[in-house]
TrEMBL record:
Peptidase A1 domain location: 50-412
Protein name: Aspartic peptidase domain-containing protein
Keyword Signal: yes
Keywords for the protein's UniProt record, in alphabetical order: Membrane, Signal, Transmembrane, Transmembrane helix
InterPro entries registered for this protein in UniProt: PEPTIDASE_A1 (IPR033121), Peptidase_aspartic_dom_sf (IPR021109)
Length: 574
């Protein structure tokens, strides 16, 4: 009876264990990174704008957002005051802004101050009326409203700023803004609600050529990165805690070359001293802005005549007479160095040279093949001391990952693919190998939580996985019960003992980190329109005049006669 009682006790323990394991297994919660496509977003005017398809309000209004690295808050322009350029039609204005927020149509919106809404009250904004902070109630209103990043990730009562001025960098960044700055309210809310593992993100801007073969959606991954869109080794450095580079991603360009179709290369660096520091700003629309001397060497190899700058989608790119064809039919390679590590990034011609694309009065995209835009900007004499920029178009050929918690950023050559392999990253930069177990009913939001987050719902696949896991757990426990009872019924002299249980441990893979020296103080803010007291900005005043950037002075400095590349003769052909 003693042995039988012991077996009964063991069986009771096993039943109890089953009752504990099943609810634990059923409540497995994975908080994988959130992947948002960068794609053509359908707008209320029946047109499209490339960006992140994010919905706000109730019923949801879909807008085409673009991330910005100098902003901490999320901002959208409202339908009753969009501050578009003068003489812009309503349909064109809607496309220009990536959609407009109809405040009155949202039943879930509540107007609050920046503080009460949970926004970053000290977010610095540059508008046509000057530089101001988010608490300036004459130029900024805040709503608490639903923000849906995907079909199963919604932040309720999220702070959304509605500008009373144009804060779009004079057409360089005109769309709705998803702030990913160092104090990003979005990343902080997702991290607080354990919907991402770290305040990190990876971005591939996709391909934006004019043919179907040269077009591809990009992606923004919050809480990790897309490994499938990276190629080869990476280089990593620290985020520099300086105001001179608003993204804090400083790199050195140590070499540049033109890659001709006949497989010959022309270096545009005449000497070692041509290397220059640059700030990686993924919301800047072009591939790069370059020191004037470096650009002149590139321009000398072009076969067309410079005409002006683009004032369209690829704002301020250098434009050429395209009636005789594209000014250049090769690629461009830049050698990027971070913390002593170097990486070659090659921009293909179909992402480097594009026809001029503008927004028509109907809101549709208008393509002008007679005007060819090279996705570069030449710093003019009056802007020569500005810090060169590496921008969004560059990220068609490079992939960048930023971990704000670890204070690092990482760069790869991009692998342009529609495949996806999302990797969650922890705060320390390690890969998150396993999902945690969350007890049922113990993770309810605290009362008074202003985030109002709606928990991510489990997908059908996840539910199926939980069911399979539950069944597997039950089978394991049942098997254990069988062997325990069987052993208890064996002779007392049996020398066998149960085998030890070995836990499985996963090795954490770290993105390498190398120290990098701080940026020298002689560099200035790369964007004057965000600065305080900049002359070019002050000239805009309250007139709302557009297209008045200082760069047109560079037109006279460009060579009208183009000398061909020294390594080839005649037209370059494949």
């Amino acid at each position: 009876m003693k042995d039988h009682g012991s077996v009964s006790v063991q069986a009771h323990k096993i039943v109890t264990l089953v009752s504990l394991v099943l609810p634990l297994t059923a409540s497995v919660v994975c908080d994988p990174p959130i992947a948002i496509p960068i794609t053509n977003v359908s707008l209320a005017n029946s047109q499209v704008r490339r960006g992140l398809p994010i919905r706000i309000g109730t019923p949801p209004q879909t807008l085409a957002f673009l991330p910005q690295w100098a902003k901490n808050n999320t901002y959208v322009y409202q339908s009753s005051g969009a501050y578009c350029p003068s003489n812009t039609t309503g349909a064109a204005c809607t496309t220009y802004r990536g959609g407009l927020y109809d405040i009155d149509a949202s039943t879930s919106r509540i107007e609050r101050s920046a503080f009460d809404a949970g926004a970053d009250p000290y977010d610095i904004l540059g508008g046509l009326r000057g530089t101001f902070i988010a608490t300036n109630q004459s130029l900024m209103r805040f709503m608490k409203d639903d923000l849906s990043l995907s079909s199963n990730i919604t932040l309720g009562g999220f702070p959304i700023g509605v500008p009373g001025d144009d804060i779009g960098q004079q057409q360089a960044e005109p769309q709705a803004i998803l702030g990913l700055g160092g104090n990003s309210t979005l990343l902080s809310a997702l991290r607080k609600n354990e919907q991402i593992s770290s305040r990190s993100y990876g971005i591939f801007s996709g391909l934006t050529g004019v043919t179907s073969a040269s077009q591809m959606d990009g992606s923004l991954v919050l809480g990790g990165y897309d490994q499938a869109k990276t190629s080869g080794r990476n280089i990593t450095g620290p985020l520099t805690d300086v105001t001179l580079c608003r993204s804090q991603m400083m790199v050195t360009v140590t070499g540049m070359s033109l890659n001709w179709p006949n497989r010959t290369d022309t270096s545009v660096f005449a000497r070692e001293g041509d290397a220059f520091r640059a700030c990686l700003i993924p919301d800047y629309p072009l591939a790069m802005s370059l020191p004037g001397e470096v650009f002149q060497r590139i321009n000398a190899n072009f076969d067309s005549t410079f005409v002006d700058r683009s004032t369209g989608v690829n704002f301020w790119g250098v434009a050429y007479d395209g009636r005789g064809g594209a000014p250049y039919d090769g690629d461009l390679t830049a050698q990027i160095e971070i913390a002593g590590q170097s990486l070659d990034i090659r921009i293909p011609n179909d992402q480097l040279v594009l026809p001029d694309i503008s927004i028509a009065e109907t809101g549709a995209m208008n393509v002008n093949y007679s005007k060819q835009v090279v996705m570069l900007d030449a710093l003019a004499a009056e802007t020569e001391m500005l810090l060169p920029i590496i921008g969004r178009s560059f990220l068609s050929s490079a992939y960048v990952f930023v971990n704000q918690d670890a204070g690092t950023f990482t760069l790869w050559a991009a692998n342009a693919t529609t495949e996806s392999d999302i990797v969650p990253i922890a705060r320390d930069g390690s890969i998150v190998d396993t999902c945690g177990l969350r007890l049922v009913g113990t993770d309810s939001p605290e009362s008074g939580d202003t985030s109002g987050s709606t928990p991510a719902r489990l997908t059908i696949g996840a539910i199926a996985g939980i069911a399979v896991g539950s069944a597997a757990a039950l089978m394991v426990v049942a098997a254990a019960a069988f062997f325990i009872i069987r052993r208890r019924r064996q002779s007392q002299g049996s020398p066998d003992s149960p085998d030890g249980v070995t836990s499985t441990h996963y090795q954490q893979s770290h993105i390498p980190y190398d120290p990098q020296e701080m940026v020298g103080s002689h560099f200035r803010d790369p964007h004057e329109v965000e600065g305080v007291g900049k002359a070019a900005h002050a000239e805009l005043g309250a007139s709302h005049a557009r297209y008045e950037l200082a760069a047109p002075a560079a037109v006279s400095e460009l060579h009208d006669g183009k000398s061909p590349a020294t390594t080839v003769s005649g037209k370059h052909g494949y």
